[in-house]
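TICKET #2291
ISSUE: user wants both folds in one file
ATTACHMENT 1:
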Amino acid sequence: MIKCVILDDELLAISYLKLLCEQIENVEVVKAFNDPKLFLNEIENIDCNVCILDIEMPGMNGLQVAELISGSKKIIFTTAYKEYAAEAFDLNVVDYVRKPIKKERLTQAFEKAAELLQKSHKKDFIEWNTNIGKTVIFTDQIAYIKTSEIDSRDKDIMLNDGTTIVLKNLSFKSLLEMLPSKDFAQVNKKEIIALSSIKVFSTNEIITTISSEGEHFLKLQIGEAYKNSLMEMFGK
C-alpha cells in the first residue's frame, strides 16, 4: 500500500491530485500541505512512504524540500516547467510528472515507487558484539551512534524507537566500513548520524529528529575535518 503526502502551494492542484489518487488502486493520501515549512515540520512524524512535491512554490521550492526529507520517503515531483527535469533526477527521485497531470501518467509514477519500496524492504543487518551479547541489528533501525562516555572503546547506538545498545570495543573506522555509506555520516570525532535522522543542517550544525533532554531536538556540531565530506553527501 502506498501512503502518500502531497505538497503544493495551490489548493486547486491539491484537490485535483487527491481526486486522481483516489482513483488509483493501493494508493492512499494521508495528508496534504500547501506550505513547505509546515510540511517539513511534520513529515518525519507522518506514516507515509511517498511524497508528491510541486517544484514551483514561493519561499522554498520542491527541490530544496526534497533535499531535507528522510531517505526513506520516495519522491515524485510535479511541475508545469520542463527545465527542472535534469535537476530533479539528480536528486534520485522516483519520477517527474509534468502538469497538467493525467491519471495514466500518475499511475506509472506510483508503479515505479511501488517497485522501489518493495526492493527497499530487503533489509541490511549486522551482527554486533554488544552489552547484551551477540545482537543482530537492522541498519535501517539505527538513528545515531556516539562514543560511550563510560569507555571510549565502546559506542552507544540509538535506535529509531529510542532504545540504546552499547557496541563493545569497536572503532568508528570499523563501524563506517560495516554501515551502508549512503545512509550514514560521521559528524565529528565522537558522533555518527543516520541521514534519515537529519532534520535540517548548516555548515556548522545538524539538527536531528531525535528527542533530547532540555532541547526539543538533539543538535550535533560538525567538526572541521568532516565538513567537506558532509557537504558532498548533501550535494553542496
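ATTACHMENT 2:
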Amino acid sequence: MLPQRFVTGPFTSPLRTCVPGPLASLSLVLQPWLLQPLTGRSAGEFSGRAVDVSQLGSGALDALCNASQEACEAGKLDPFWMTFAARAASFPQTPPTLALEALARSGVGAAAEVLGCSVRHYLRRFRGAMGLPPATWLRIRRWETAVGALAGHETTSLAELSLRHGFSDQAHLARDTRAIADASPARLRRLLWEKAGHWSLQPAHVRLIQDTDDAHP
C-alpha cells in the first residue's frame, strides 16, 4: 500500500503497489543528486523504495507536499510552482562532474582518469550522486533507450533492435526487460502500441525550474 506522500529513488526492478481508491497524483521528477538538498539523505537511501515523507522529518519537503495538495484541491498549480521554484533556488546549480560520456564509451577506469581520481573514489562519487553503481546505471540507461525505440511505430525486429542498442542478442534484451519491467519485449511493445493513449504511457508534462534566470517557473 502506497503512503499518501512518498519519495522514491532509482529503480532497477518493478515495484508492485496498490492504492485504496481512485488515484489522483502529482509527481516531481528530480535528478538523483537533488534528493540530498531536498531531503537531507542520499539518493541511494531511496533506491528501489517508496519512503513515506512523514518518516523523513524534512520541513522543506513537507512544505512542498502541502503546497502541492492545496494547489491540486484548488485546481491551480501556479502557487505550487512558485513554492517549488523558491526551494529550487537553493539546489546545486550544476550536476556533479561524473564524466558520463567517458563512462559510457570506455568504462569506469576511463571516467576516473578524466576526473583525475582513483577508481575507488569515482565509484563512491558516482553512487553518492546517482544512487546506483555505474554498471547498474549504464544497464538501466541502455534499457531505457531500447524501450524508447520499442515505443516507436517501426517494424524493426527485436533481434535487430537489441543489437542496435548495445545488447549482445535478443535474449539479452529479454532478460533485462523481464528483470526491470516484468514483461517480455514483445508484450511491452504491444502494450506501448495498443494502449498509447493510456494515462500511464503518456509523456510527463515537464517544467524546467532550475534553468530559469529568475525565481519563476
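RESOLUTION: both attachments delivered.
EXTRA DETAIL ON ATTACHMENT 2: Residues 96-132 form one domain.
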